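Before surveying the methods themselves, let us examine one representative protein, pairing a chain with its fold in token form.
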Amino acid sequence: MHKNSSNAIAVDLEIEESESYSRSMNPAILGIDASFVYQRGSIRAGIPEKLIDDEFKLVSAHEFGHSILMHVGGISLSWGHKGSTNIILQKVKSSSPGYPKQGKIDLMKYYNETKNTPNLKERVSGSKAVEIDIKRLIWSSSILWKD
């Protein structure tokens, strides 16, 4: 079943054709106010298209996640990336851990890359919405259960 565009979430999609990186974002102050950027120009820089596609999915999921965190926990949870960054400047805190050596990588946290940095393929394949954020999404959805 397809829904028409009148039911769609209003977001901007930009395709970056140059090799320079353009940042996706979602301030999430009034719901979803997202701009997602697909980095097509990265193909010329030698990054495989599959990896660019996977990174786009990861970044889009992260940006969408800001709306959930803002709704359930406010600006400090959302813009502060669950305590891993400075709220205003988005700078990763020195107290933030490096990427986990194994297991899930929390989609909504920033990690201290001075402590360790996985390659892009590892980061994309290991990033997941963690259980608490899935519960936050369900809680915030106001689902009405029928018998």
Q: What stands out?
A: The two ends are 25 Å apart (CA to CA).
